[in-house]
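Both lines are given unchanged directly below:

***
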Amino acid sequence: MSNRRRHASDDYEIDAKRRRGMPEYDEVERRLQNLIIRVDESSATSSLESNLESLCGLLEADLDKYRTKIIEIVTFW
């Protein structure tokens, strides 16, 4: 253990290391939840139909690997 004083930048580096070590499953879960939530948000530039089409494309790409998590997220919301 070093006697060096910790700085704010040290905390950032520690957090970055923790994020890199996060399981991929958690990252996918977070990303999918954000995508599903965004579908419902109204936007002047995107229609609901467009948002749903984008979401479907992304879900199809992850479906084989994360089928259970996708179903859990969709049925929970």
User: Anything to note?
Assistant: The chain has a mean pLDDT of 70. Residues 25-76 form one domain. Helices lie at 8-20, 24-40, 48-76.
